[in-house]
Write a structure and sequence with these properties.
Radius of gyration: 20 Å
Number of strands: 2
Strand order of the largest sheet: 1-2
Order of helices and strands: EEHHH
Shape: flat
Number of helices: 3
Strand content: 5-15%
Distance between the termini: 47 Å
């Protein structure tokens, strides 16, 4: 988005670990389209939840919690070790 000229970045003068991003005028012109796309995505998610009977937000929250307890890399490493042991 930086190279496309949609956002600008500025390093926080008080904390170099932080970077602030702001929309450029070109980025601001895109906001109406972004809002339309966001609305369509929200409707698709709602439709999928109705079709499947599953709450996507709840499922993602459960995945996030599980991965915070044991990260993805650790899980994959564990499976690879099990495979070698078999």
């Amino acid at each position: 988005m930086l190279s496309a000229g949609v956002v600008n970045s500025q390093v926080d003068p008080n904390d170099a670990r932080r970077t602030f991003y702001t929309l450029t005028p070109s980025g601001q012109k895109l906001l109406p389209k972004v809002h339309i796309i966001n609305g369509a995505v929200a409707k698709v998610i709602s439709d999928l939840q109705d079709e499947t009977g599953h709450d996507l937000s709840a499922a993602l929250a459960a995945f996030h919690l599980a991965l915070s307890e044991k990260p993805w890399g650790a899980r994959v490493s564990s499976k690879l070790k099990q495979r070698k042991a078999d």
